[in-house]
Batch of 4 targets.
Target 1
Amino acid sequence: MAECVVVNFSSDSVRIRTDDLSNNVSEESHIQPGRSVFGIYHIICLLLSITTFALDVGFDSWLAYFYYRQGQGAYFALTVTFLIFPALITTAFSLRWYIIDGDEPTLSKPPLWKWVLRIIMLLLQLAPILRYCDALAYGIHSITAGKAGNRIRQQKMYRKMLDEDSDAALLRLFHCFLHAAPQAILQLMILIFHANRSDESSIQAIQAWAVICSLVSVAWSLTSYHRSVRYARDDKEKLEWQGAVMQFCWHLMSTVSRVLALSLLASLFPAWMGTVCLCHWCVMSAWLALAHQHTAVCASRCEELLFSLVLGLAYILAFIAPRDGPTRYSYLAYYLVFFMENTGALVVWCVASSSAQNPVLYYGAVVAQVVAFLLALAFMLLYYRYFHPSGTSTTLSKSISITDPDMDLAKPGQSKQFSSQQTL
């Protein structure tokens, strides 16, 4: 059976067919030994993804309930908006991908009971959870087939596990930038607003936990996505657990720095913060749309525009390279802007606020924001220096033929990936 992978040179996609490899090469011959086995590392990552998603949504839902009970209509409306809107977006994308996969003739049709389960989970707005559970199920089937000595089925189930994990990771990325990041800024802004005025609130502990869960959720979603992209490609070195830990620390500190800076500004001048984020979003979305950053995730120009809007939101908080190639100078430019915006927000807050009102908050916020940014840079440098996967595998480097770049992709599970992320 011929397999296809997407390789990007500049912005053009090409197909590489592996059926022209040397004679008598089986399906298993180009699979890296030890890399295609579902193990404890995959299980831990999937369980962490489910847990962080559940805690993030759970604490925010709990907060919305408390705001409603206490009659805080504005806080309740904002919290619910950032709960429902992201859930609807991710559900729409997930349903669309199920329909696309259902129309793919090379894939087996799911039974009726599975479609019923999908509809129920989608109605409950739990699209990522369903895909994570499917990935776990495929992984368990892979283990069972391996123990039974059925190597072909083991590899087939492992590939399906990677496909579901990749889809779930991309959905989770959307959800975090639409839900977790705004919720973290909102709840931290409320905490700072009341702390700056020495107001006592009975739900401050819940707010603090909600902020922590949102920050962890964003950091893990970025780490999980980068890991899943590499595992979905047979020609890429994998992100091992040491690199994943280092990347998680990098994204966590970067997110803390950004969220804290925006929250401090929003606690005094929410309109300013909203204007800055809106301008940032519009500029980034327009650039993505006008640059025609095509991905196989989108089947139409309308979906491309929606995809650009969603991805544009990500650039408020984190950088995701839009195309293949070196990212050194892109990261340098992004973090330079990142530093200037954060510093500007911090300076405005320091000037407009007063250390006499709450000296612990005043000096603690400044130190935390600066230290978090410096730690983010340190973890990023350590990751690229010692823990970054060592380039691409040469397994498919011989006897390949490049065919028509306009042909459809033959491996649906890889079609929903940002091609640029293969360099991370």
Target 2
Amino acid sequence: MSTPIRRLLTASCLGLVLTATALQGSAQAAAPQAAPSVPPSQDPFYTPPSPLPDGKPGDVIRSRPSVFTVDPFGKSPYSGVKSWQVLYRSESVKGAPVAVSGTVLVPTKEWTGGGKRPVVSYAVGTRGLGDECAPSYTLTQGMDYEELFIADALGRGWAVAITDMEGLGTPGQHTYEVGGSQGKAVLNMARAAQRLTDDGLGEGPVAVMGYSQGGTSAGWAAELAKSYAPELQLKGVVAGGVPADLRAVAAGLDGTPFVALMFMAALGYDTAYPDLNLKGYLNDNGRKLLESSQNVCLLSVDGVSTLLTTAFKKITDYTTSNPLDTPQWKAALDSNKLGSTAPSVPVFQAHAGFDEIIPLTQADALHKAWCAKGANVTWKVYQIAEHATGLVESEPDAMAFLTDRFAGKAVQGNCAG
């Protein structure tokens, strides 16, 4: 990646919330309300047929041409890329069929790398809980903070498929950080991209890439791939800033400036596992927070307000008793803990040395667990990075790793190191 782009990405990550909030206000005021610009909550495209048509995971339910842009003002299409929004079949963490939305991006330039064009199933980081946070929408608005990473992958000639994940865009609450659901959505997004007849991709090589929430998704895709999607020609997985153990992450977030992320995950788990009965643990403050934050997007005025008003709060400020102390909540979180299955393909796992949001220790435990099971893992810690800059610092290594995997080069991880 060129130095100017890396500088822009760094600035984007460091000024993430304030910059995107300001741009959002300007862009929404000027945006015409044509189909691609209508938020998902107002767009019938995102409402699946009921019941879902017969099919299998990864089948495309519907699709339409779209626009990928990095221009938040004029919405000018990104040159040399065709874009589609899709609604496709996936599965919940419990195996129930669900409809998930997403985006497929394909360079118009002919692929000359031999064989079929590779597909990167790109798992995004935290967006929020509201449908307007869905990447399939924000990528049409020039309002997605990972759009330049996606553009970098497109510039290498790869197709990129981006899932919105369960409940983000489509009706229902987003199952935020429920890894079993997210991993399936990522693998089924790759299937959908290859089954979409308009994009001409067919069954070629696949890779998965994600950071932060996307790191959880990528890690779960790595663990599930062999049993859940054996037909995919998965060549490698990049998982960065991985929240691998949500109990450890919650303990690290409690009482910090980023505790809102833990509260979001609590709502995500309560959605995926209704028997957890989150409301039964909440006091008046907790019920007010739940009511006000169910549709919040982090990169919005409401999102910034939620981050600020909850900063340095503790679980005990919002509950009558701590749900994380109960066997039910522990079991749900533990069932979505990474590390129980060795990925069947090479993995590049990255983490920031000064990550203030996702503890390094639990990510290190994941890499060691995978290594102990015989996985091929390349583990790298970026010693002077924090969480957001870790995304930027690891990107060149991540892209180089995937380039080598698509080229068929062998890699020997550093588990023994």
Target 3
Amino acid sequence: MRRHFGFLLLLILPFQAYSQDLSADELFAKARTTAFEEKDYSKSIEIAKQALQKAPDYTDISVFLGRLYTWNKDTAAARAVFQKLSDKNVQDEDYFIAYASLEYWNDDNMKAVEIIDKGLTYHPQSEALWLLKAKAYYAGKEYTEAEKAVKNLLAINPKNTEANNLAVKISDFISKNAINITYNYSHFDKQFTDDWHIVGVGYKRVTPIGSFIVRANYANKFAENGTQIELEAYPRLSKIFYLYVGGAYSNNVGIFPNYRTGVSLNANLPHSFEAEIGYRQLYFSNNIWMYTASVGKYYKNFWFNIRTYLTPDNKNISHSYTGTVRYYTKSAQDYFAFQIGTGISPEESRNNLLENETFKLKTFKIGGEYNFSIKRNLFSVGTMYYNQEYRPNEKGNQFDITLGYTRKF
């Protein structure tokens, strides 16, 4: 036993002697390296404590120690560190961020806001504090307050990526109700003699479990009329995941599919990424199954997205790809959009063309959209150009114009 004890002393004493020779700054640097590169929070905590023995009033080290306890899930120890700093009336921005983050990550959103508000009295231009305040209110389902916080942040820096990302999510919850009307006009130079007209009227309701939408569509295609009823839901599963569930029915087959269904799993990922994977099914006289996946990314004022639809049959798999870029201006409802792609999407008004398997022929599309808001009134105008191979080696052009109006209340 004595031999083992002596062996441990031989290991520990040189380290202690070495640590005693290091300055507080050097120990601080070592603690950070141990935490970030080695991911050994327990060891980093011990090094940070040694640094504080050399410099008890070194605020940055104390804040870092509080963060280490937070990451190590020792919330009691983390709170003790931050409370000591509070008793000293520390006013460092990083202290308020670290302390509020602890409470936010532990679901005490109102405590987090209380800490943030105190920090903002000293640092009113802090983007990190305003963002954390918006996140805390959003997590606590205080969407009006979350919107105020994110607007303050975007007034400081309109290109803040996370703020723009969060603003889009918050906008869906600000008003519990919305009605909208859309009109789509399509002109063909060769494929069809008659122009198409589609009018849709919808109602959206935001609930604690997610959003629900009911929509009625009227279309005049091929000089014939048809109607369709749609239902969509976006139930939330967690802070990260939510579903899209949709269905539609029409007894005017050819104008619309007889019925369609769709389900997707959506994820809000770190670093302002988002992703979706799911299926869409259309039934005319036969079923058409499509599988979809998309990846999106917010960057400053921009949102980038690429989506694919894959439609398998007995011989091959048909592909559709669409790339979208949005540039947000003053809010989540105000943006310019550009779109380019190939193939036909089941989300488009042209989806009745899928019945004759023209989706297996070549299609190119390019278009733009402008959305703007006036208080609770949202307006949109868009245009799209298609070059469609509607029969093998025969192409025609299509020009679309879409107008939309939404009233939130």
Target 4
Amino acid sequence: MLAYTLDWLSLLGRWLHLITGIAWIGASFYFVWLDNHLLAPRRSELREAGVGGELWAVHGGGFYNAQKYKVAPAQLPEHLHWFYWEAYTTWLSGFFLLGLLYYAQAEVYLIDPAVLALSKPAAIGIGLGFLLGGWLIYDALCRSPLGRHERVLGALLALLLSAAAYALCHLFSGRGAYLQFGAMLGTIMVANVFFVIIPGQRELVRAKREGREPDPIHGLRGKQRSVHNTYFTLPVLLVMISNHYAMSYGAKYNWAVLIALTLAGALIRAWFVARHKAHERGGRTPPWTVAAGVLLLLLVALLLRPAPVAGSTAAKPAAEEFAAVQGIIQARCAGCHAEHPTLLGFAAPPKGVVLDSAEHILTHTTAIQQQLASKAMPIGNLTAMTEDERAAVLAWIEHGARR
């Protein structure tokens, strides 16, 4: 019953996380797009009122006229809409899932003794340390003199994030490291909203209500953090779905794969941001960043392609070989991959893959090969599969998966 309850909590938590994430990312992408499409107002009364840019759009059967003030309007409107609960709820639901799966079940999803034999409290403490430490270091850099030099700051952040990816992949299981890296980026993103963007906006509103001249520095800081968030978004989305693709987190150099995919996501997003300003370049957007991102993805895919499994050239008789393989799978895999899993914490077979019969094993040989070759399964090697057993199953598949 506990495993069944955890499954429902996971399902509902993921659903909420997805819904609020769509709302947050949608609003974030829209405002980045809007900022980059604003044109200088043509009407003199708008310029005199302090409008720095405006945009006309048509959507849903109506016309919209968006205007952005250089600092603030002369008089605040009665109703002012804020955007922040989308971000907060996304992080809260994400942290709930992180705690439910990767911390509460750290011995399954986070700890891999083959990487580092951590205790459960140590693994959780290190994970939380990366969430907090990542934000503190990032925020300190943005507030330092380096924060005024975006290119230098961006290069330094790229180096530090690469170091974090390397460290996480040498502390946790590949799956856990990827999710922890995404959680760190997501924490930085929501902390930008909570500690910088929203307080700055509240100060602008407070200044207007108190009759003071608003300080434009709050708008500039908020814009900087908002732009950083948009570059973090695609890498965060990548690691959210990475647990379904063992070829990435299960690779020998999974830290390098994580760095490359993160960089590719940032480059592709940079092209879209540049494309928003195509009107300033006669409608043209140089393709170099998106081309570099796509080529990087292709290179990673090429390097991760499955290699032929080294096995004996003289295979055993088919029946004998399959009997041995079936015994290994029964002992090391069927605890999870059965109609009714016996391994604690699993109410149903992962991804619906059942391996408790000869027919089921033969049906899933491709998936078995990928999971075993990447060492993603058995998860956390909870069933203590030996390297000889792993090699025997892979060799059987290489010989044609005969029965």
